[in-house]
Design brief:
Radius of gyration: 22 Å
Oligomer: single chain
Shape: globular
Helix content: 40-55%
Distance between the termini: 48 Å
Structural class: mainly alpha
CATH topology of the largest domain: Hypothetical protein af1432
Number of domains: 2
CATH architecture of the largest domain: Orthogonal Bundle
Number of strands: 2
Length: about 260
């Protein structure tokens, strides 16, 4: 092959497949230089109470250093990431959230209710299921009105208790998920009792009502249709979500860089 055929393609000449191959090659080179490790928390999810020994890892991988930045195996985040970027690059599954928000729009609810439905399970799709209402509320509290974050926190408890006056019954799906003899833990019962007297009770209950417990895996809802609602109701930090100095910025950084060593 002559010099013309061997030359590297410019960015404008590269096909989508070319770009994917180039990115994969770049990732391989980056992985050749770094050691990625699992946190104790990640190992707990595998049923193991353990952490890898640092010195043993260095001896096993001579010449390498621990990862102190983005994980090259994951989609790259922009320098100033937005909530939409996390939806696209870090949330494992958004279909349920999008369908719940679309349901709230269809039912004519306020933008705050729509946003609460869109974000109610973000902890589940980005981090963990356990106590996801609390985690999700803390993640977004600095960036939304209190009504939204508090409603998300309380929905974790409210979903286990019917309110026929608002048209909410105990979900049939929960009978399949947890069994007919499941009883919520005492802290959930206490949270439910407190929620009954909250000024945001109705908003939180509307999250439960618009929750799609048997959502359609084939239904497609476009995230872009909520961009204006997010823009009006989510206070995007100019530094980027995770790079500001809010009380929850570290949570977003951890999701952005989950294998950073320290």
């Amino acid at each position: 092959m002559g010099p013309q055929g061997a030359r590297s393609k410019s960015a404008s000449e590269m096909t989508l497949s070319d770009r994917a191959d180039a990115l994969e090659e770049q990732m391989m080179h980056e992985l050749d230089k770094i050691i990625t490790t699992k946190s104790v928390f990640a190992n707990l999810g595998d049923g193991e109470v353990t952490i890898e020994d640092s010195m043993a890892l260095l001896e096993k991988h001579p010449g390498k250093h621990f990862n102190m930045g983005p994980d090259p195996r994951l989609p790259r985040m922009p320098d100033q990431p937005t909530l939409l970027d996390y939806f696209k690059c870090r949330f494992a599954s958004t279909n349920h959230l999008l369908q719940s928000a679309a349901c709230a729009v269809k039912n004519g609810h306020s933008e705050k209710v729509v946003l609460a439905c869109l974000l109610h399970d973000i902890a589940v799709v980005s981090f963990i299921r356990c106590d996801h209402g609390y985690w999700g509320a803390q993640m977004i509290a600095p960036y939304v009105d209190e009504e939204v974050s508090e409603a998300i926190r309380m929905h974790q408890a409210l979903r286990f208790f019917p309110d026929e006056s608002m048209g909410y019954s105990y979900p049939d799906a929960y009978l399949r998920y947890f069994g007919s003899d499941y009883t919520p833990e005492p802290y959930i019962v206490e949270e439910y009792k407190r929620a009954l007297n909250s000024k945001y009770y109705e908003t939180s209950r509307l999250i439960c009502i618009n929750d799609i417990y048997a959502f359609d895996p084939d239904a497609k809802v476009d995230l872009d249709q909520f961009e204006d609602i997010i823009g009006r109701n989510f206070r995007q930090p100019k530094e980027g979500l995770g790079w500001d100095h809010s009380p929850s910025a570290h949570m977003w950084r951890t999701i952005m860089w989950p294998t950073r060593y320290l």
